[in-house]
Amino acid sequence: MFLSVTTTHRPATDLGYLLRKNPARMHETELSFGRALTVYPEASEDRCTAALVLDVDPIGLVRGKGDAGGLMDQYVNDRPYAASSFLSVAMGRAWREAIAGQSKDRQALADAAIPLAASVTPLPARGGADLVRDLFVPLGYEVTVEPIALDPVRTDWGDSPYVALTLKATTRLSALLTHLYVLIPVLDDRKHYFVGDDELQKLMAKGDGWLEDHPLKELIVNRYLKHRRSLVQDALAQLAGDEGEAETALDAAPKDTAEATIETPLRLHDLRLDTVAQRLKDLGAKRILDLGCGEAKLIRRLVQEKQFEEIVGVEVSSVSLARADERLKRLPELQRARITLLHGALIYRDQRLRGYDAAALVEVIEHVEPDRLDHLERAVFGDARPDAVIVTTPNADYNALFPTLPAGRFRHADHRFEWTRAEFEAWCARIGEDYGYRWTTEPLGPVDDAHGAPSQMAVFQR
């Protein structure tokens, strides 16, 4: 993938001073996951283009070569080819001074608005071309979004989820690069690295002066911070100039605020947790896995029952896990001794999770990319293989009855899919057949004759 920046400001070759890269030669920047090349396809007094070409090592991403860290579980993926957080990292390394608006020899030019055009391709557009425009138009850009066909020969296959993006504006180079630095991974919505407090501070710094007034700031914050609930709440509080109330808001309200607002009149959050806790009790289970435990709300219900002798919570978000641990410390010592919290991703096999009586996945599966759901299935039903598994997920049929939910939209920005009742039944049938579980489903919440209940639950038993 590549990013190019073009200017017609005379002398156009002064772009090299802004990027601190001489147009007369190629520049290579070593990265933990590959290398970035800065080249100049054209360089004249009238027009100059700099291109940042990223060469990602796909083997290193999977095998953990060097500092790549084994980020992927499949050799065949789009990371070496699609503009993503890898490209933002490369920009931050190769064009650091330009993003910061610093130029040793041309500071006045760095501070000036000049005619610029930027192109990024192929750019994942998770949300479609309309989202791309909605992100960049409010920032003053002329935006061109061109779809990229799945196959240039088989046009009947339609378009891919990738686009070629071109932006034009008279602006400071640092502003253009900063907007791309933040919004490229927002559009991709699949950051490759851990997101913590430092990333929150980076967003506040890069978003200063434009993010607080952006009409899609909540979506930007959610995606940039990888949907880490407490970080998102802190960021939005800071953008609203209300930092002092951030912690209060976190303690007082559910973290999936969009979904919670939609579902609040039905009290679905409490209903799901109470129902799952009761089903686990009815199953006679004693050793429980809460997979995707979040901030331990189900665990705090389960620990009240002496029947549950061992409760293990597993969560991929270290921020949520830390908050869960902090809140569980308030429990009596005897209750706390029955609880273990583990940091782990549910799409990977984990021998620590084998041999339990039951597992619960409460509103978890819809947060998994569809192309990775089979990894979760193998890890939970095939490898951990508890005697019983309880799964809850939204019922997409019911979405039409939520007055504040636009047609075709999911209840939460982090949902990768929402299944109808028929789709959920088909998935349960396949799981039962593939992994040797019998299963039943039941509605959660008030049942509408045409649309069913707002949520649905399956109980799998071996």
How would you describe what is shown here?
Belongs to the methyltransferase superfamily. HEN1 family. This is Small RNA 2'-O-methyltransferase. Its cofactor is Mg(2+). It catalyses: small RNA 3'-end nucleotide + S-adenosyl-L-methionine = small RNA 3'-end 2'-O-methylnucleotide + S-adenosyl-L-homocysteine + H(+). Keywords: Magnesium, Metal-binding, Methyltransferase, RNA-binding, RNA-mediated gene silencing, S-adenosyl-L-methionine, Transferase. The structure is a single chain. This protein is of the alpha/beta class and 462 residues long. The chain folds into two domains: 2-193, c-terminal autoproteolytic domain of nucleoporin nup98 (2-Layer Sandwich); 262-461, Rossmann fold. Helix content is 35%, strand content 23%. The chain has 18 helices and 14 strands. It has helices at residues 15-19, 58-63, 85-94, 96-100, 107-110, 128-136, 173-188, 197-206, 217-224, 229-239, 246-252, 257-263, 268-282, 297-302, 318-328, 333-336, 373-384, 421-435, and strands at residues 2-7, 27-31, 34-43, 48-56, 114-124, 142-149, 159-171, 287-291, 310-315, 339-343, 358-362, 388-394, 438-444, 455-461. The strands form two sheets. The protein has a seven-stranded antiparallel beta sheet with strand order 2-3-4-1-5-7-6. It has a seven-stranded mixed beta sheet with strand order 10-9-8-11-12-14-13, sandwiched between helices. A hairpin with a 2-residue loop joins strand 2 and strand 3. It is elongated and about 80 Å long. It starts with a strand and ends with a strand. The model is unreliable at 65-75 and 242-257 (pLDDT under 50).
